[in-house]
């Protein structure tokens, strides 16, 4: 039998010691408790969020989608931020919650987990925007696209009679805001409706009223008629 040299014996011992050390470390790691999972963000029901949006101190609703998607459709009074540090640094009153919304609930939850590293907690909208059953703000571009579809929405102009007669978007019904309690219940709850005024403020008030009375497909034109570049009817339209 060939006798092992000193150098080969030492190399064998070193390899053996290395293997034993790995086994010991593996045993120690296996004995450690698994890392605690990050606490899941609380999910907020859409109906509850809608009511909270119009409270005296509304929550900070942060839309975490791409800017292009946010510009077309969004929850009223929401803002578009996607960086955890920027969201965590938002100024807010004591106890004012941050509520994240993405296309899906999971998208918002991922960002809520990242926010914890900056010492901020956030809630998420249950189901995300794809499951949002209430009204949204809609851009002129997106509205134009939907008007050209097979099932276009119904346009309802809530400005005064004088404003409506002077200049209006083609195809709109005239229903003044101060008469919403009379004409609101006559609208179809199954139809998609887009409310229009000059800037979006009065139509937003009409949208809130309708949503509180069971309407779930009523949108508000962002920027109102001042943001509509696609043509008018009337003698008093801007040139």
Biggest β-sheet strands, sense, barrel: 6 strands, mixed
Query: Based on CA inertia axes, which overall geometry fits?
Result: elongated
> How do the helices and strands follow one another from N- to C-terminus?
HEHEHEEHEHEEHEHEHEHE
CATH topology of the largest domain: Oxidized Rhodanese, domain 1
- Rounded to the nearest angstrom, the distance between the terminal CA atoms is 106 Å
Helix content: 25-40%
What is the CATH-assigned architecture of the largest domain?
3-Layer(aba) Sandwich
* Structural class label: alpha/beta
What does the model show?
The structure is a single chain. The protein is of the alpha/beta class and 239 residues long. The chain has 2 domains: 43-131, Rhodanese-like domain (Oxidized Rhodanese, domain 1), CATH 3.40.250; 137-227, Oxidized Rhodanese, domain 1 (3-Layer(aba) Sandwich), CATH 3.40.250.10. Helices cover 36% and strands 14% of the residues. It is built from 9 helices and 11 strands. It has helices at 6-31, 46-53, 67-72, 84-88, 105-115, 140-147, 161-166, 180-183, 201-212, and strands at residues 43-44, 60-63, 73-74, 79-80, 98-101, 123-125, 137-138, 154-157, 173-174, 193-196, 218-221. The protein has a 6-stranded mixed sheet. Helix 7 (161-166) links the parallel strand 8 and strand 9. The longest helix has 26 residues, at 6-31.
């Amino acid at each position: 039998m060939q006798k092992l040299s000193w150098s080969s014996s030492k190399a064998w011992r070193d390899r053996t010691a290395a293997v034993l050390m790995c086994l010991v470390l593996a045993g120690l790691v296996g004995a450690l408790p698994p890392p605690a999972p990050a606490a899941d963000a609380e999910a907020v029901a859409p109906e509850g969020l809608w009511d909270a949006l119009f409270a005296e101190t509304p929550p900070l609703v942060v839309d975490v989608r791409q800017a292009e998607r946010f510009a077309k459709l969004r929850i009223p009074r929401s803002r578009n931020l996607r960086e955890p540090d920027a969201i965590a640094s938002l100024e807010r009153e004591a106890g004012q919650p941050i509520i994240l919304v993405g296309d899906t609930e999971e998208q918002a939850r991922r960002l809520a987990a990242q926010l914890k590293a900056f010492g901020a907690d956030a809630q998420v909208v249950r189901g995300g925007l794809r499951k949002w059953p209430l009204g949204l703000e809609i851009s002129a571009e997106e509205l134009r696209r939907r008007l050209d579809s097979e099932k276009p929405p119904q346009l309802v102009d809530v400005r005064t009679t004088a404003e409506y007669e002077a200049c209006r978007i083609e195809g709109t019904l005239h229903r003044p805001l101060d008469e919403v309690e009379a004409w609101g219940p006559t609208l179809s709850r199954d139809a998609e409706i887009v409310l229009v005024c000059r800037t979006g403020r009065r139509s937003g008030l009409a949208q809130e009223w309708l949503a509180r009375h069971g309407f779930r497909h009523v949108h508000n034109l962002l920027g109102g008629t001042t943001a509509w570049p696609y043509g008018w009817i009337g003698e008093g339209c801007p040139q």
